[in-house]
């Protein structure tokens, strides 16, 4: 049990002793969906240095309002399959064993995804995966239980650089947040990686893709903020990360700094605005999400929860 759970339980006991609630009612509340909500935005192939280069307003504002981790994921394999698997399991490829984009659901039986772990901890939770890259569905749709909702947005015809497909993915995310307020939502947007492959990580087109993706992030953040304003008892956290960078001429999978660069943005009530870390990386995402949603951590994790320690009400007594 972590500090947040201790606090929650202490408050629940206080409620039982001061309000006309039966223990059964309190238990029913404990099994309901959470007031803590997490949206995880995965931006394929994005380098934080390019966010700074184009002064992407939404991502820079999220960083300023939250915690920012910037680090290298070397010697991890800088390919989408291994990296998104690490984001969604909390273990490196040395454990889950995925080395490229040819993978099946088998690794997620041994190393359950964050979706599976959340549902095992609280069957009432609602989780969504909404992705441009269809192979995300292999991860989110695996295990028992799997994510509540798994969507692979179909490629828009005549959209080779994925501008429209990513926009459709973001629109689905906005709808999901607005209509369903899932406890955990993961989305994957792909066009920055596509621009890197077609034109290079040092190209004008890559920078333009960063600016476009920033606009889509802005729509998702606006949906979260509108929902949070209308439901002030809910505690919303937004996490943003990437799977790898790109060489200036395009491509990844190697160990150059442009490929191994990684970042995490974490904005919400459990993160201190303006703080930075040189070690907070994609491997910490799953433990952090579980901690935010009061689900247990697992010693198998290579990453750790990065939520700030709440004010210690017990020690001050
Ligand atoms: Zn790629």
Overview of the molecule:
By secondary structure, this protein is an alpha/beta fold. Helices cover about 45% and strands about 15% of the residues. The longest helix is centred in the C-terminal third of the chain and has 27 residues. The protein starts with a helix and ends in a 25-residue tail after the last helix. It binds zinc ion. The site of zinc ion has 5 residues, from helix 11.
Question: In short, what is this structure?
Answer:
The two termini are 20 Å apart. With 317 residues, the chain is α/β, with parallel strands linked by helices. It has helices at 3-18, 23-30, 48-53, 57-65, 80-89, 93-96, 107-110, 114-121, 136-140, 163-180, 191-199, 204-230, 257-260, 285-292, and strands at residues 36-43, 67-72, 127-131, 149-152, 184-189, 235-241, 261-267, 276-277.
List the main descriptive attributes of the protein structure presented here:
alpha/beta, Alkaline Phosphatase, subunit A, 2 domains, 43% helix, disordered N terminus, disordered C terminus, binds zinc ion
The share of residues in helices is 40-55%
| Corresponding CATH superfamily of the largest domain | Alkaline Phosphatase, subunit A
In N-to-C order, the SSE pattern is HHEHHEHHHHEHEHEHHEHEEH
The overall pLDDT average reads 90
Quote the distance from N terminus to C terminus.
20 Å
Task: Give the structural class.
Answer: alpha/beta
From the alpha-carbon coordinates, what is the Rg to the nearest angstrom? 19 Å
**Share in β-strands:** 5-15%
So what's the overall shape?
A: globular
Compute the number of strand runs. 8
Architecture per CATH nomenclature, i.e. the level-2 architecture of the largest domain: 3-Layer(aba) Sandwich
Q: CATH class of the largest domain, please?
A: Alpha Beta
Number of helices: 14
Distinct ligand kinds: zinc ion
Tally of discrete structural domains: 2
| Poorly predicted residue ranges | 1-30, 311-317
- Enumerate the strands of the largest sheet in spatial order, edge to edge or round the barrel: 4-3-5-1-6-7-2-8
The fold-level CATH name of the largest domain is Alkaline Phosphatase, subunit A
Give a quick account of the main beta sheet: strands, pairing sense, barrel closure.
8 strands, mixed
């Amino acid at each position: 049990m972590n500090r947040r759970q201790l606090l929650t339980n202490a408050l629940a006991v206080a409620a039982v002793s001061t309000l006309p609630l039966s223990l059964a009612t309190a238990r029913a509340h404990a099994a309901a969906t959470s007031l803590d909500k997490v949206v995880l935005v995965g931006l394929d192939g994005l380098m934080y240095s390019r966010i700074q280069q184009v002064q992407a307003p939404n991502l820079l504002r999220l960083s300023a309002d939250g915690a920012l981790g910037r680090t290298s994921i070397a010697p991890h394999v800088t390919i989408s399959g291994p990296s998104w698997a690490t984001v969604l399991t909390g273990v490196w490829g040395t454990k889950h064993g995925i080395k490229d984009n040819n993978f099946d659901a088998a690794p997620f039986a041994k190393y359950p995804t964050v979706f599976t772990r959340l549902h095992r901890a609280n069957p009432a939770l609602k989780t969504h995966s909404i992705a441009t890259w269809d192979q995300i569905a292999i991860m989110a749709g695996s295990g028992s239980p799997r994510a509540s909702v798994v969507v692979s947005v179909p490629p828009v015809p005549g959209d080779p650089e994925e501008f429209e497909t990513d926009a459709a993915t973001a629109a689905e995310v906005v709808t999901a947040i607005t209509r369903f307020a899932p406890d955990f939502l993961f989305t994957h947007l792909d066009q920055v990686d596509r621009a890197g492959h077609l034109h290079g990580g040092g190209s004008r087109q890559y920078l333009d893709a960063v600016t476009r993706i920033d606009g889509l992030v802005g729509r998702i953040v606006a949906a979260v903020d509108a929902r949070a304003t209308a439901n002030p008892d809910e505690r919303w956290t937004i996490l943003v990360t990437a799977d790898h960078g790109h060489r200036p001429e395009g491509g990844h999978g190697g160990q150059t700094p442009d490929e191994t660069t990684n970042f995490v943005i974490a904005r919400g009530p459990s993160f201190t605005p303006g703080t930075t870390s040189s070690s907070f990386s994609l491997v910490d995402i799953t433990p952090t999400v579980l901690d935010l949603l009061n689900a247990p951590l697992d010693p198998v994790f290579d990453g750790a929860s990065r939520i700030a320690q709440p004010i210690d009400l017990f020690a001050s007594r």
